[in-house]
Structures are given as structure tokens and as C-alpha cells.
Amino acid sequence: MDMRFWRMVGYGKLPKYHQDPTTEELAKTLDCWPSMNYYITGCRYVLMPWKFNGCHAVFVIDHVKKHVTFIDFTPTQDWCKHMPYKRFAEAIIMASKKYKIAYNKKRSGWAEDIFKWEHTIQTGVPIDLRGFNTSYLVLQAMAMWGNDRRLKFVGDAKTLRKNFVIDLLSYEDNSCRYAIPANIQQRLIDIAKKD
User: Fold this and answer.
1) Looking at the domain covering 3-132+142-147, what would its CATH class be?
2) Is residue 154 a contact partner of residue 140, using CB atoms and an 8 Å limit?
């Protein structure tokens, strides 16, 4: 995940400490990100992390099938057990509006409304009853999506945090990586290979 995008949308901050991005800022995130060789208008999938009700989820937008998949790690509340999509209604309307505006900036004339596309809720994902680890689970889902394999999540919070730190520290574009002594870098690589 691009850290500038993370900071810009305030993904890791409390709502009172960040402002919503403008349309131009959202459109800028759809540019080709440094060190990544793809353009958003050529991608089949767009994965959008979304925070609502104090927890994190992922919207997977499939441009080929015109389909939106919700990956949510929180239990379905009683008030929407009869209609599970109900809890996503406000979020999908908001995401649809913002996505349409931002994507249209990059692909002129694009007038699709993802709200009108087919929607499904991903099954077989772990449920975090307390909501503490949903952001880690979102990052895992984003890393695994698009592979032909079944989504396999690490549910242990300690292992999740360890893997996250190892991935962050060993990421080749991490400018601080070279400040880490060589023996520690090698140890991180060895630990990452064991998992």
C-alpha cells in the first residue's frame, strides 16, 4: 500500500485529526504510483480500504465483471441479520459517488455507477469480535486478492503484527531500510521466509 495514500486519506488516524481528501487529491491517487508499473484505468481490480463503524473493511471493485465484493471482518449485527447488505448501504453510496468523480478525472467520459453493479459479501473470512485487528486483516486481504488461491488469513494478532513489521522493514523501497544493520536485515529476511 502506498504510504502517501495511507496518510492522505487518514486511514490510520482518528477522524478529528484529518480532513477528507478533495476530488483532485483522490484523482491523484489514481495516477501510476512510483515503483509500480500499472495505471488505474488499466486495472481489473481496484481495492479500496474503508473504515466504518470503527472497523476496517475492503471494497473490491471488478471492472471486468462490473462487480463489487465486500470483505468485512466484523460480525453481522442483529439489526441487519435479515439483510446483511444493509450495513454497507451508506458506505457503498458514499464510495460510489467519490469513486465515480475520481475515476472520471482519469478516464474522461466514464459514467459507470458501482452502486448499480452486482454486490456480494465475501464468505470464509475471519470474524474479529472486538474489532481490534480489522486493519491488519484488511492489509492481508489486499495482499492476497487476485490470486487464484483461496484467501488464507493469519488470525493470531501477534503473528499479524510481526508479519506487518517485517514486511514494512524489509520492503525494498523503504528509505529507512538501509539504516538497519545488515545482520538485522538478514534476520528479517530469514523470518519472512519461515512464514
Assistant:
1) alpha beta
2) yes
